[in-house]
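Sequence design from tokenized structure. All designs in this work follow the same two-part layout: the structure record, then the generated sequence. An example of the structure record is given first.
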């Protein structure tokens, strides 16, 4: 079977979803062919510029996205059943690859793209949307919904309800949970206990004078998307009073400058155990989630989904306001009593102090995560994708 996955690098979730799908499809159909296409960036300059602008907003000015997101919601009104830009590129791609199935992991790569693809290759072409959101309401893009989609696969009942509310046919909604990289779906080692243990990835220690001792401390992970957007140094300053009581791993994505900045901070403040890590693969991230006492991250869909699948407590970093699509994860977490967020560095210190001084409060919060773990069904997803 030939499968073409449409994605875009606007944010982290969409490319990661596409790569995870590719890994699973190669297991399910070893003789098939899977291609991943960043169709917005590759097809045309205007779309490429829009993606770059989105990523700039995410790094430096999340508040701008309040207006930008609303503007993009009306994109479909000016491209009914077709593409605004890059039609020749996409048509050539389709004719060369000749997919049996197209999967879209991004709201702006299905509405218009599916209808155009079926005109190029014929109505027998199957098209499926992989919706990575956790909840509906404000922030859920109308562009996820395409009448040309043969099915929309969703992760949560809330998203299924949102699709029905928007009059998408109920019989074409597949509620099958998340499908992350295969490593996320493997059982934890018997010796590894959530929130502690030596299995976290380690590199050269950037802080603290006894790395082996630091592994016994609660581990707070400061997250970042692949683009490395972060407030790590501001947060680390507030964590200095917890030297000897807390260890920190700061993720910096693929930005070398961000990695060097955290390393320099750690070298200047050796009392606090800080380790700076660049981009981590699935195996390393799974180990971090299972080792983490808690993680601080933007309320993006991908990190939220990974944490809910593995039971890792999340503290949402909402510095610079919450972007519309980030409200979806916050809404999902809040409805289950899981929501914790900070919009100023000192609020993180307050939370950490409360949980270190009153561990029973932290234990109650962590148990709540275990109660609300996301359930995944890879075999049913395989049958849906392969049409078997």
């Amino acid at each position: 079977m030939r499968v073409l996955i449409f994605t875009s690098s606007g944010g982290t979730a969409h490319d990661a979803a596409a790569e995870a799908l590719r890994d699973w499809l190669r297991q399910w159909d070893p003789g098939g062919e899977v291609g991943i296409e960043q169709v917005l960036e590759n097809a045309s300059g205007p779309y490429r510029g829009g993606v770059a602008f989105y990523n700039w907003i995410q790094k430096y000015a999340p508040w701008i996205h309040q207006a930008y997101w609303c503007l993009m919601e009306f994109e479909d009104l000016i491209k009914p059943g077709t593409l605004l830009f890059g039609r020749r590129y996409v048509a050539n791609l389709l004719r060369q690859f000749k997919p049996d199935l197209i999967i879209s992991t991004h709201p702006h790569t299905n509405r218009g793209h599916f209808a155009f693809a079926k005109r190029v290759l014929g109505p027998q072409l199957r098209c499926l949307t992989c919706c990575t959101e956790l909840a509906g309401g404000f922030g859920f893009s109308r562009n996820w919904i395409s009448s040309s989609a043969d099915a929309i696969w969703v992760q949560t009942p809330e998203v299924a309800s949102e699709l029905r509310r928007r009059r998408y046919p109920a019989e074409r909604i597949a509620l099958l949970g998340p499908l992350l990289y295969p490593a996320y779906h493997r059982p934890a080692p018997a010796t590894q206990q959530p929130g502690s243990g030596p299995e976290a990835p380690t590199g050269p220690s950037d802080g603290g004078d006894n790395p082996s001792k630091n592994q016994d401390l609660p581990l707070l992970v400061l997250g970042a998307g692949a683009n490395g957007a972060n407030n790590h140094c501001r947060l680390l300053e507030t964590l200095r009073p917890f030297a000897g009581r807390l260890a920190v791993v700061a993720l910096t994505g693929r930005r070398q400058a961000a990695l060097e900045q955290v390393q320099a901070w750690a070298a200047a403040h050796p009392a606090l155990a800080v380790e700076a890590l660049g981009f981590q693969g699935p195996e390393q991230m799974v180990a971090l989630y299972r080792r983490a006492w808690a993680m601080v991250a933007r309320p993006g869909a991908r990190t939220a989904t990974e944490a809910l699948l593995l039971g890792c407590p999340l503290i949402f970093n909402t510095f610079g306001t919450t972007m519309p699509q980030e409200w979806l994860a916050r809404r999902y977490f809040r409805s289950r009593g899981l929501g914790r967020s900070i919009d100023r560095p000192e609020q993180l210190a307050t939370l950490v102090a409360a949980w270190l001084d009153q561990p029973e409060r932290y234990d109650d919060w962590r148990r709540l995560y275990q109660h609300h773990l996301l359930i995944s069904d890879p075999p049913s997803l395989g049958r849906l994708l392969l049409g078997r």
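The two ends are 12 Å apart (CA to CA). We note this feature because it recurs in several other targets discussed in the main text.
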